[in-house]
Design brief:
The structure is a single chain. The chain is flat, with a radius of gyration of 42 Å. β3 and β4 form a beta hairpin. The chain is of the alpha+beta class and 744 residues long. The protein is built from 31 helices and 11 strands. α9 runs parallel beside α15. The strands form 4 sheets. The protein has a 4-stranded antiparallel β-sheet with strand order 6-7-5-8. GO terms for molecular function: DNA binding.
């Protein structure tokens, strides 16, 4: 590196890139070639964000691997600049195949993307070298004698790369990459795994938040809470990892006031108005420097406020670190969102932790959105919020619908409709085979439907008298309509009176005799049959209809009665089953309620036992940055006259949300090491009379509410001892265990 010190003195690479590169032979090889450094510096000048340093480190290491492999192929090459000649084009191809893991037998690649990337990198290297030659700037390993020849060699090599790199290696590499994509199916996480992950992160964040509020294990809990907020923000917003993990504190604190937005707010529903107030909208820079909104819920905002408070008070993170999700003791580094998601996924006991990644979360929300009937402008808004284009959501998730339509031959029905307007019925997904498979089966259709089909069909040329056949072949007969099986009654009904009169008469008179073996009809047979008979009234004589009704009425009446009897019997059977099940469920619920009551009482007893060594002090003045332990020791020793040392108190803290200076002081919880000292302090509480400071036992939430209700009924004659509540009723003392004791 000594040869390049002069060149690197003014280079940004030393501070921004070299320090984060892996210290091995590949990095050392890349650093030793000034052309590689010039190439990396040119890329660095193109970008503004500091995160580009990781990308440049990878780029330099790729060039380092290229040079190591190039020297094994051609030992005469001394540096990358000397290798920029057209005769070395095949050497660059062979070297790229080596470092990308090309296999000649099946034309596959271990790292297929490296091949097209190397084409772009080498063209950029040629531009950097050509710039140096034009500027006549010679550096170690960048030397030439014939300037014109050197320029021509670099230009010719760049032409070869531009024109032939694709056919030599890139095309095969991209095909191999696409094969890997479709050979590996896209799997989405299940809703149960997402809920398990979310619950795990929520619980972890809640515990860390409460401990940070009491300033316990600051560094550990700060890191846990920051990781949880990062994971929750990624989960809720479904954004790219970089758009979240690089968020700056200044961007988070920057708020935009809603000016003159009343008319827009009025257009929203009440639920939408409430949602707009409960979320904080932060705008960050996304891919391509596009503005990307990030939403923070009220709960997550509380976590962030706690994180920022701890950072400002205890300097866990240096003030020079501008990132919201900053690593502890780091001046300019941020937490890796991908690593955080991966760590939590492995620890949350999900069935498929490998599917819980930020990239798959994109696909999950894109697939979910396709289940909704969203207009184009709504899809555009969602895509803009996600920082994507609409194509990202629609390209791979809406093709199945068109394939199902083609499979079922539904093209004509949906002509001129968009995919969003097409609603697929269940039969598109599940039915197979012909729709008329069961047409000849008695069990496949109801009798009423078959009757209507037979009445509605045109007569076929399958029998009948000579007169009928002649009338069917008359000039007014529509043979085309017969072939297409169209409905029988249209505008030409009067013209076909003779044909349809004989046809309806024959069909209706024989329907009962030909269908005796079919199941009883449903009740709605007459409802469908009467309109047909009414239409045929003008063609059939009254005597014929009277005879027909006389034959059908008794039979249809009996069938209706039988059907009603079956329905009533079936209903009674189902009703008896429901009553039996309800009776069983009521007994089970009663038993479970009693069991739950016993369990709750046991839990309350265990919780109270855990509080036995604690006392709750109300009214003690609260100050900012107070020494709470010293204040409580002073109260015990001076006001109560009890000798107490710090070793006899295991914990002391305030409970509740921190309030402003004008509010009442929060209660203080003191936990003693021994019950002896705790009882001594509790018995001496009467010495505080007139000082507006009160000492009570620390009760569970249930017992605290029970104590309040007892005082409402018995007044001041209510007290506690060892977690139990007592009340004086006349001359007797009563123990209050539950609400039922207050009713006696």
């Amino acid at each position: 590196m000594s040869k390049n010190n002069d060149f690197l003195k003014s280079s940004r690479l030393k501070e921004e890139v070299f320090n984060i590169m892996c210290p091995d032979d590949i990095s050392l090889t890349a650093k030793n070639y000034p052309l590689v450094c010039l190439y990396a510096e040119a890329l660095l000048n193109k970008h503004k964000r500091k995160q580009i340093a990781n990308v440049l480190s990878n780029k330099m290491r790729e060039m380092g691997r290229l040079m190591k492999a190039l020297k094994t192929i051609d030992g005469g090459i001394t540096g990358l600049f000397d290798a920029l000649k057209p005769e070395n084009f095949q050497s660059f191809i062979s070297t790229t195949k080596i470092i990308s893991g090309s296999k000649a037998n099946d034309k596959s690649f271990d790292a297929p993307l490296l091949a097209p990337h190397m084409e772009t990198d080498l063209k950029f290297v040629c531009n950097s070298a050509l710039k140096n030659v034009l500027e006549n700037r010679q550096l170690p390993h960048i030397q030439w004698t014939d300037r014109q020849k050197t320029k021509n060699d670099i230009k010719d090599l760049k032409k070869l790369i531009k024109g032939h790199w694709c056919t030599e290696i890139s095309s095969l590499a991209l095909k191999a990459l696409k094969e890997k994509h479709w050979e590996k199916p896209v799997q989405l996480p299940s809703n149960s795994d997402i809920q398990i992950f979310k619950t795990y992160v929520n619980n972890l964040a809640e515990n860390a938040y409460h401990e940070l509020r009491n300033n316990l294990n600051l560094i550990k809990n700060y890191k846990i809470l920051t990781e949880c907020v990062l994971a929750e923000t990624l989960m809720f917003n479904r954004k790219r990892v970089g758009e979240i993990q690089y968020l700056l504190i200044d961007n988070y604190n920057r708020t935009t006031e809603n000016v003159n937005q009343e008319s827009f707010m009025d257009s929203l529903t009440k639920v939408e108005q409430l949602i707009s107030k409960r979320f904080k909208r932060v705008v960050a820079g996304g891919k391509g420097f596009k503005p990307v909104p990030i939403l923070f819920s009220k709960r997550v905002q509380q976590y962030v406020d706690c994180i920022l408070r701890v950072r400002s008070e205890f300097e866990i993170v240096p003030k020079s670190n501008p990132y919201l999700f900053a690593n502890p003791d780091s001046e300019d580094r941020w937490m890796s969102g991908a690593s955080v998601i991966r760590k939590f996924a492995q620890r949350c006991s999900a069935k498929e932790p490998s599917l819980l990644t930020s990239t798959i979360f994109w696909k999950h929300i894109a697939t979910t959105l396709q289940l909704m009937s969203m207009e184009n402008y709504e899809m555009e808004q969602i895509a803009t919020f996600m920082g994507h284009t609409k194509k990202t959501h629609m390209e791979f998730y809406r093709r199945q619908k068109s394939l199902l339509l083609l499979e079922k031959g539904k093209k004509k029905e949906f002509k001129g409709k968009s995919l969003g307007d097409i609603e697929l019925d269940a039969d598109v997904y599940y039915t197979t085979g012909s729709e008329n498979e069961n047409e000849g089966s008695d069990d496949g259709q109801h009798l009423s439907e078959r009757i209507l089909k037979k009445v509605g069909k045109r007569p076929r040329h399958t029998g009948g008298t000579t007169d009928e056949v002649q009338s069917k072949s008359g000039p007014n007969f529509d043979s085309t309509a017969d072939e297409q099986d169209q409905p029988p009654y249209k505008e030409n009904l009067k013209k076909q009176e003779q044909v349809y009169t004989s046809h309806i008469h024959r069909r209706l008179s024989n329907v009962v005799q030909t269908r005796r073996d079919i199941q009883p009809p449903k009740i709605n047979v007459l409802e469908k049959l009467i309109p047909r008979i009414s239409e045929a009234n003008n063609q059939v004589s009254s005597s014929t209809l009277d005879a027909l009704v006389g034959k059908l009425a008794p039979k249809i009446g009996d069938m209706i009665k039988n059907e009603m009897d079956k329905l009533i019997e079936k209903f009674d059977h189902k009703l008896n089953n429901v009553v039996t099940k309800l009776t069983s469920m009521e007994k089970s619920i009663h038993d479970n309620s009693e069991e739950i009551t016993v369990i709750n009482e046991k839990l309350d007893s265990l919780e109270q036992n855990a509080k036995m060594k604690k006392l709750r002090i109300i009214g003690a003045a609260e100050e900012q940055n107070e020494n709470l332990l010293g204040k409580m020791l002073k109260l015990i020793t001076e006001d109560l006259g009890i000798k107490c040392t710090p070793e006899e108190i295991s914990d002391v803290y305030r409970v509740g949300e921190a309030k402003n200076s004008n509010s009442k002081p929060r209660a203080t919880i003191i936990e003693f090491v021994t019950m002896l000292r705790r009882n001594e302090v509790f018995k001496a509480k009467g010495l505080l009379k007139g000082k507006h400071i009160f000492i009570n036992e620390d009760l569970t939430h249930k017992r605290y509410n029970l104590q309040i209700n007892a005082r409402k009924k018995f007044g001041r004659d209510v007290w506690t001892r060892s977690g139990r509540i007592y009340a004086k009723c006349g001359s007797a003392v009563k123990t209050i265990n539950n609400e039922a004791d207050l009713k006696d």
